[in-house]
Amino acid sequence: MKKHNFNAGPCILPRIAIENTAKAVLDFNGIGMSILEISHRSKDFQAVIDEAVALFKEVLAIPEGYQVLFLGGGASLQFCMVPFNFLNKKAAYLETGVWAKKALKEAKLFGEVVTVASSGDKNYTYIPKGWTVPEDADYLHITTNNTIYGTEIREDFDCKVPLIADMSSDILSRPVDVSKYAMIYGGAQKNAGPAGVTFVIVKEDMLGKVERVIPTMLDYRTHIKEGSMFNTPPCVNIYTLKETLKWVKEMGGVKKMEELDLAKAKLLYDAIDNSKMFVGTTEKDSRSIMNICFVMKEQYKDKEDAFMEFAKSRGMVGIKGHRSVGGFRASTYNALPIESVQALIDCMIDFERDNA
Q1: In this predicted model, what pLDDT tens digit does every residue of 34-61 receive, in sequence order?
Q2: 0.90 exceeded by the pTM?
Q3: Domain range annotation of the chain
Q4: Phi, psi angles (nearest 5°) of residue 227
Q5: According to the model, what pLDDT value does residue 92 have?
Q6: CATH homologous superfamily for 252-355?
Q7: What is the pLDDT of residues 291-328, one digit of tens each?
Q8: Which residues are identified as catalytic?
Q9: In sequence order, what are the beta bridge partners of 280?
């Protein structure tokens, strides 16, 4: 049976990226060794990381003055690295979900933190509007896509203070004006590659301005100087990320990704909005095109488990909602084909026909 992978992360990857990684695991570039066992200091792997950096810069049109890093520790480590490197006196945070809240919590260890707005009052089902940023803040931190709740910021703010964004789950899904950001970061496993590597895009002249001493490993300048190789990097993960970036480029770049992602999201949201049984959980003007969250209407709540089993029998994988929200979540990342979205919709229609 064909599987339709809606996992929120680690998520579906381009098949060509998986196949090429599998080949490299067995024999990397015909050198008789696996990508798992070659030296990260070798010319062979240096070529991999150089190509990955170049592709990131190309597909996102990253301007001069920015460095691309590949680090370990996930976005969660960045929650403390960001304030370590950028927070002198005060930082501003937009709280739009669990991960934004966790980032805010870490920042409070380093100085004053102002929450410019929060959607916690409605369980993070919307993106707040009309908020202002203190002009004396060292930076504003935002989380552009909220995987648990299915909300997304799909614009690049004009901000009077340096703007830092966690784009873990919507990177590469739309063109981004990188010049509006001091830094963009994220765990690769939501759209850019496998779990185990974190991307950082940082404006180099923003660094070195805090008064505190920064531990060597937590200083972005360390990793810039060493080309992401201060310590042994996650080599195979970077290789797969590089192959994913190649696929994005060959498919037509981030503009094409956005076109395809918008089409998938519209198809599924229309089905939810026209359903007698299912209903979306987020406000319509805040909806994510990456993570589509929905539940059973109140009178059908007792049928959620039955639908999960029915969907599983039809090859649906990863549609169970996050434990803090419940219901269902379909993650429609770049590599998910539109045929899988249609298969989920057909599944919903058939279940509703027999159970509503």
Answers
A1: 999 999 999 999 999 999 999 999 999 9
A2: yes
A3: 15-251, 252-355
A4: 60, 40
A5: 98
A6: Aspartate Aminotransferase, domain 1 (3.90.1150.10)
A7: 999 999 999 999 999 999 999 999 999 999 998 889 99
A8: 99, 166, 190
A9: 294
